Amino acid sequence: AFKTAVIFTAVVTGVQLLVAGFFYREVFSVLLCVLSLWPYLTKLLHRQPSCCVAWTLLCLAMAVFPLLPAIGRQVNYFFVSASGLALTVFCVYVLTRYASVVFFSNSHGEFVSTAILFKLQVCLLFVSSILPIVVNWYLSLKETIPSLLHSVSWSILLFSLVVPFCG
Predict the structure, then answer these.
(1) Spatial distance between the Cα atoms of 76 and 78, rounded to a whole number of angstroms
(2) Is the separation of the CB atoms in 16 and 9 below 8 Å?
(3) Segment 81-100, tens digit of pLDDT
């Protein structure tokens, strides 16, 4: 009961801090610094110590960006999509090159389910990287955004909320 209360409190506090981050960007830096400690609270530290160190360093590196000044007021969809596509390429590389290291297997077949979930997340990342450019293109033509794009956007949102809990 105590553990559940602590988890519930942490989740509620995290959501409130995410909302506060929209008004005060520095909050995201604090959240990323706290998130960098996550692997050290799990059993992952003993299984994959190098991944834990990499996770910590990457979270701390990302924590710097909300502290930097904003550049311009215009949205640049190219950079958003380019970064998403670069991450997609990196994920496909990891999936093809290091699949046996990333997805450790056990007798219950978790290797297969984890690999399928990872592939699904990479597909969602790819589609969500292209979507802003397509929507912006329709808006620049002063046309109505097709219902298919609305459906895809809502599907990405729903899958993004559900898929992490499937593993």
Answers:
(1) 5
(2) no
(3) 888 899 899 888 888 877 66
